[in-house]
Design brief:
Nucleotidyltransferase, domain 5; five-stranded mixed β-sheet; 8 helices; transmembrane helix; FtsA/MreB; transmembrane
């Protein structure tokens, strides 16, 4: 569902090597009103965690020179800190999903925040998409943006943002998105019910490894759904490399599409689009540990001072009374 009453959203995409922001407006159609990108020094963000908050703050200040400073954003949680799972079972109660999450997400139970959406709800086959993350990591990012004076409306998944951007609606026939750049390759299989398969691997320059993983995704989907994947969508910097499209078509035996415009990061744009749409699960900071300032309001200080004075006066009067007695 698209909400037309909301006129503007700001999406922020974060990786270890860059941050990107897209401001999106909707006036009958999506339009990018402003955007910006800043490359990060090595070590500022490491595996999706903030390592140097001072340098990261400076990078965001630089980023917002070209984009109007936002007071509210949708943040794409770094891929390294996001857990996407697809569960299929006859029992899709909240209790069953919670048990599956706690059993399969490699985090302590108390440190897991998750949400889910039902993609397929048929009698014999049900599919649920779960997004999960660490409470600690979510709190770190939330508190960082608070320090900048920015509120995070919710946290999105980069993988879901890419799917949202590539497909304006769910594909009738199964399709596979391969997003590959110098650092990370994502393999995302989608069908009429939404995301059906998601896998990420480090890009090493070995295209045979990418082909092997894509074939594995095709086999998995064919085994689970008894259907073949008929379309391959190539995005990311590697997709624009000479010969890559032909190489993929030859090895996978299906047509590949790689002519999508990529003037901005696909994830940042897809993240901003989530502000106008519903359906995909997102993460909120509710329930996560939050930083509370140790500073006390002036009224509280005055109250404590007044109480202290009163206690001293009462003590003096008691001592004086005892002396007179």
């Amino acid at each position: 569902m698209v909400h037309f009453f909301q006129k503007k959203t700001v999406g922020v995409s974060i990786s270890d090597n860059a941050i990107e922001v897209v401001e999106l407006v909707h006036d009958g159609a999506f339009k990018i009103s402003s955007r910006g990108r800043v490359e990060l020094e090595t070590g500022v963000i490491v595996k999706g965690r903030i390592s140097d908050s001072l340098k990261l703050t400076a990078s965001f200040r630089e980023l917002f020179r070209n984009v109007e400073f936002p007071h509210e954003i949708i943040c794409g949680l770094p891929e390294a800190q996001t857990f996407l799972s697809i569960y299929e079972s006859e029992d899709m109660s909240k209790e069953s999903i919670t048990r599956a999450v706690y059993q399969n997400i490699p985090l302590e139970k108390e440190n897991i925040i998750f949400s889910y959406a039902v993609g397929r709800d048929e009698k014999e086959k049900k599919r649920v998409l779960v997004i999960a993350a660490s409470r600690v990591v979510l709190s770190e990012w939330n508190n960082f943006f608070i320090s900048l004076g920015i509120e995070v409306k919710f946290f999105d998944s980069e993988a879901l943002a890419i799917v949202r951007n590539v497909f304006s609606s769910r594909p009738k026939d199964p399709a596979c998105i391969v997003r590959s750049d110098a650092f990370l390759t994502m393999i995302l299989v989608c069908d009429e019910y939404g995301l059906a398969y998601a896998y990420s691997l480090r890009t090493t320059g070995d295209t045979t490894m990418i082909v092997r993983e894509i074939r594995g995704a095709f086999d998995y989907y064919r085994h689970r759904e008894q259907k073949d994947i008929h379309a391959l969508v190539l995005v990311g910097s590697l997709s624009r490399t000479s010969g890559f499209k032909d190489y993929m078509e030859k090895n996978m035996g299906i047509p590949a599409k790689s002519d999508l415009p990529e003037t901005v990061d696909l994830a940042a744009l897809g993240i901003a689009m989530r502000g106008f749409e519903e359906g995909d699960p997102v993460l909120t900071i509710e329930g996560a540990a939050r930083h509370h300032s140790q500073k006390m309001p002036l009224a509280g200080l005055v109250a404590i001072a007044t109480l202290s004075v009163a206690i001293v006066l009462v003590t003096v009067l008691i001592i004086w009374a005892l002396v007179l007695w």
